[in-house]
Write a structure and sequence with these properties.
There is one protein chain. By secondary structure, this protein is mainly β. The strands form two sheets. Strands 2, 4, 5, 6, 9, 10 and 11 form a seven-stranded mixed sheet that branches. A four-stranded antiparallel sheet has the order 1-3-8-7, with no helix packed on it. Strand 4 and strand 5 form a beta hairpin.
């Protein structure tokens, strides 16, 4: 069983910044991914960003590209999401996710099915 613990959420004004952290209890293979998703009230969970554990590949949703940066610290088994220029539409619960298994079929990095474990979520609220 893998435990993911997120932190760093909160209330911020539009244009402000927050940094989310996610600590995993298990290191994953370098070819696997860790991701951030978010879910606003009444909406489906959506992809925000992902990074390969090797750090070679980073991926972003179009809505956050240029404002958010995902990174990881392998020594701490942690992944981070630096969020700048925040907008009210970024308000959501943010979830960290970790892939620990290979899929038999190709699953997009942006799909929730790619990931095996999820954190409990951290609330991010951006006021206008």
């Amino acid at each position: 069983q893998v435990q993911l613990v997120e932190s760093g959420g909160g209330l911020v004004q539009a244009g402000g910044s927050l940094r989310l952290s996610c600590a995993s209890s298990r290191r994953t293979f370098s070819s696997y991914y860790m991701g951030w998703f978010r879910q606003a009230p009444g909406k489906e969970r959506e992809f925000v960003a992902a990074i390969s554990w090797s750090g070679v590949g980073t991926y972003y949703a179009d809505s956050v590209k240029g404002r958010f940066t995902i990174s990881r610290d392998t020594a701490k088994n942690s992944v981070y999401l630096q969020m700048n220029s925040l907008k009210p539409e970024d308000t959501a619960v943010y979830y960290c996710a970790q892939q620990t298994q290979t899929r038999r079929t190709v699953v997009p990095i942006t799909a929730t099915q790619k990931y095996d474990y999820w954190g409990q979520g951290t609330q991010v609220t951006v006021s206008s």
